[in-house]
Structures are given as C-alpha cells and as structure tokens.
Write a structure and sequence with these properties.
Blueprint (H helix, E strand, L loop, with lengths): L2 E5 L2 E4 L4 E8 L8 E6 L6 E6 L6 E3 L7 E6 L4 E6 L8 E8 L14 E4 L3 E6 L1
Parallel strand pairs: 2-11
Antiparallel strand pairs: 1-3, 3-8, 4-5, 4-9, 5-6, 7-8, 9-10, 9-11
Length: about 130
C-alpha cells in the first residue's frame, strides 16, 4: 500500500520560514518525480513545485520562485519543501504527490499526472 504523509505545517508570521516534509512508502521512491501543490478553501489546487527523480531538476510556480526550495532525500524516501520569506497569500493546505510517469516533463502542474497524494498539511501565515 502506498502511503504519503506530510508534516511540518503550522502558524508562522509573515517573513518567517517553515520546512515541510513528505515521507513516502509503498512505492519505489526514486522512480517518481514528486510535486508539491497547495489549495485554499473554495479554490483550485495549484502546483507549487516539481522535483525530478534524482533531485537534479526542479520547477517552481512564479509566485514562489526565489522563496521556496524543493529537496529530496532518496535514501530516506523523503521530500522537503523549504519555505522562506512567507507571505499571507501562502496560506494554504499543502499536498505532496508522486507523479505516475516518473517525470516533471509534460506539464508538471497537471494534477492528473500525480496518482498518489498525501493528506495535506496546513500552512497559515499571519500578517
């Protein structure tokens, strides 16, 4: 059984930092590109980043470039999202997901590329 478990969310002041973690089990982790998505109530889920199977290639939404960094540790089956200089508009539920085709190429923001999703972790940024 595939399990995807996020953690690390919380309440932080604007300008602060958080590091989200995503631990994956039940699949061959380094066969999959991994994505981070976020979603606010009543809004569509949007792509935040994608990282290739090796961690060599990363992609980011324009809204987070220069502030967020995705990293993976394949030895630990773990994905991270380092979030710096957080803004109130970053307040969302953040989700970790595994891409079924194993790559970020081919529209990494397309949600249906990702078959396995975590339950989400809430990030709230106060002004």
């Amino acid at each position: 059984q595939v399990q995807v478990v996020e953690s690390g969310g919380g309440l932080v002041q604007a300008g602060g930092s958080l590091r989200l973690s995503c631990i994956v089990s039940g699949l061959t982790f380094d066969d999959y590109a991994m994505g981070w998505f976020r979603q606010a109530p009543g809004k569509e889920r949007e792509g935040v980043s994608c990282i290739s199977w090796s961690g060599r290639d990363t992609y980011y939404a324009d809204s987070v470039k220069g502030r967020f960094t995705a990293v993976r540790d394949n030895a630990k089956n773990t994905l991270y999202l380092q979030m710096n200089r957080l803004k109130p508009e970053d307040t969302d539920m953040y989700y970790c997901a595994a891409a079924t085709d194993g790559g970020c190429a081919g529209s990494w923001t397309y949600r249906k590329k990702y078959n396995y999703w975590g339950q989400g972790t809430q990030v709230t940024v106060s002004s």
